[in-house]
Fold this protein.
Amino acid sequence: MEGVTKPRRQAGAGTSALRRTLASPLYRGAAVALFLSGLGFSAAAPQIASFLVNDLGGSLTAAGLFYLTNLTAPVAGYLVGSRSDRTGRRMGLFRLCAVAGFAGWAGIAYSTQLWMPYVLSAVVLAFAGAATSQLFAALHDEMRVRPSEQDDGIVSIVRMALTAGWVIGPVAGSFLAAHTSLRTMLLATALCTLVQIVPLGTRRTPRIATTETRAPAPRVREMLPLLAFTGLYVLVYAGESIKYAYLPIYMNGQLGFASGLSGAIIGLQPLVEIVLMPLAVVVARRIGMLRLMVVGAGFGFAANLCFALTGTAAGLAAGQVLMGGVWGVFAALGIIVAQRLLPTAVATASALFLSAPALSSALGGAAGGVGAGVIGLPLVFLVPAVLALAAAVGLAVMARGRTL
């Protein structure tokens, strides 16, 4: 921000990003917290549609439309983010959002009527998603107080911890659901959401950064680049809700895969993602972040074609590898681009950008619910293929004239 005096010497110059992450209680704690968050959510994401259908008697279309409840998440994220930018209370808001997540998932686990998960998701879990954005805003504050050449790498490493949770979560969730019940698995998700508070203890936002963040809310015109970027990210991400709603059903129901094989295929994407994230940071320094994201969106187009047209374990695995390429790029760089597009309100930028998965879940849920009813499985995956192609075109236009 204007008028901010940076330290004369950049902290940790010459020190690797990994060492700085491990040495800092905030960076290290944020990494562990995001791992737990990713572990819990990714365990539930592939199973929520099955829970709605098998335990609560919903239809496939109703299960897909569940993701429309995420339309409230951007509103909740904006409210939390703007509050955070006004007060600088990143960590306090993070803890409140985590508790909301615990209450929401526990409530869904104990639901006895089909409407109950929809209400809980729309009202309570909408605020839970803002927990992650508050952590990234806190990281940004710390880096303004103690900047270094490794800051982008640190953000990428912390983001990789979230991806690591997504590597383990789908397999763990499938195993737990198969050996206990879907309700037990949802309770485990609730517990992971709550326990993410523990690694950060009672830590607060740096004092200097707290005073810097007390700025007026940004005008709509200032937010237009961020909103455009977030909208394109929504198109890329829309395939995730369709995939997690229908790919497990397709694999287990129509293709007859064992639960271990289907869980392994689901878990393949984040495994590839976590390997590619450090490479994405290096490549982005050479060709630019937005240009690399054009390539990533192209991977999404190809991945969804694999889901729609192959019908074999090898073809679905190839699709997951390509999706790993998508998120290796977007997961490593997306939050950095968002904060740079709105540097005067980083918590708001983080919250709006990280609400994109919720918006895309609503978009994908609506498109997937209608598509599953009209063209069925697996051709429903052609819908996110078209959306990813549109995102690639939009990102290519946005990359012109920008050095990001």
